[in-house]
Specification:
mainly alpha
């Protein structure tokens, strides 16, 4: 499942964070970073998904 979330981070970071943690403040942050630029959203999504 982790590999799928990592791949999903490259296309829809906020969706990967949503699937990992459920609806929380992290999803909103990922979505806002995605709006600011694709790369910050991807980096934040990867950090959240790979954190244990």
């Amino acid at each position: 499942m982790r590999i799928v979330l990592i791949v999903l981070c490259f296309f829809f970071p906020f969706l990967a964070v949503l699937l990992k943690d459920g609806f929380s403040r992290k999803v909103v942050i990922a979505f806002l970073l995605q709006l600011l630029g694709h790369v910050p959203g991807v980096v934040y999504g990867l950090v959240v998904v790979t954190r244990d």
